[in-house]
Amino acid sequence: MKLSEYQSRFEHAVLERNDGILEVRLHSGGGPLQWGLGPHRELPDLFAAISSDRENRVVILTGTGDVFSGPVASSAETSSIPTRLPLEVADRVIREGKQLLMNLLDIDAPVIAAVNGPAMRHCELALLSDIVLVSERAQFQDSAHVPSDMVPGDGMHVVFPLLLGANRGRAYLLTGRVISATEAVDLGLALEVLPDEQLLARAREIAGSLASKSTLVLRYSRIMLVEQLKRQLQDLLGYGLAMEMLALQDRPAASEGR
């Protein structure tokens, strides 16, 4: 697939490529990405398109403005989800949830995350990158699950324990703890903390250095480096999504109150 075939296709991403380096800037209406059904449906297709384009040699993933992804979720927001999801809706959520992460990891080019601010929704999209750079105002949190009365089954149940260690990862999911930029580096989630105005320039610098390598070195290195992640997600992602959907059945109907 050529860039011209998908560059303008996505409502929640601006794509620009120079010298084989594809910059992907996530957004909602030109502002920070606001997670919802739109991005959930669209981003799996975005990652699949990027993966299918062999001219993408390095990918930079970033956000818009002062937020990488938001907003912070709340139980009030998630309580609006129907208690009895129609089967076709639950099936779509599970299918899209699997494709979101698996299609991201199927990109056969090194991925650099330039986390320009808080990543409070689906922060694993940044953390699954090969190189994670963070601005001083960046934060990470799984706000959309246990803190909002939801099961963390859409990949966070794999990613946090794998990257943070089993005990710390489980504790952070259950408590909804916020991870600051400096703590992210200390915990091994990110490589560097940078002033806001230097973040994207540093990502481009590293991307340029990588892009000077041979295509097969880049592609095969990426494939090898994400294989463990893909195996873990392949084993547990569908199961986690099913548990998340099943737990919704325990919500009281709207007429019963909460």
What would you say this structure looks like, in words?
This protein is of the alpha/beta class and about 260 residues long. The protein has a single domain (about 5-195, about 215-250), classed as Alpha-Beta Complex (2-enoyl-CoA Hydratase, Chain A, domain 1). It is about 45% helix and about 15% strand. The strands form 2 sheets. A 6-stranded mixed β-sheet has the order 1-2-3-4-5-8. It has a two-stranded antiparallel ribbon with strand order 6-7. Mean pLDDT is about 95; it is low at about 255-258.
Using brief descriptors, characterize the structure shown:
8 strands, alpha/beta, globular, 46% helix, six-stranded mixed beta sheet, disordered C terminus, 258 residues, two-stranded antiparallel ribbon, 2-enoyl-CoA Hydratase, Chain A, domain 1
Fraction of residues in H or I helices: 40-55%
Total count of strands = 8
Treating each run of at least 4 consecutive H or I residues as one helix, how many helices? Answer: 10
User: Shape, please?
Assistant: globular
- Beta-strand percent range: 5-15%
Describe the sheet with the most strands: 6 strands, mixed
Structural class: alpha/beta
CATH architecture: Alpha-Beta Complex
Instruction: Note poorly predicted spans.
Output: 254-258
Topology:
Elements lengths: L2 H4 L6 E6 L2 E6 L10 H16 L5 E5 L12 H4 L8 H19 L5 E5 L8 H4 L3 E5 L3 E2 L15 H9 L1 H10 L3 E2 H6 L5 E3 L4 H13 L3 H33 L11
Parallel strand pairs: 2-3, 3-4, 4-5, 5-8
Antiparallel strand pairs: 1-2, 6-7
Helix pairs in contact: 2-4, 4-10, 6-7, 6-10
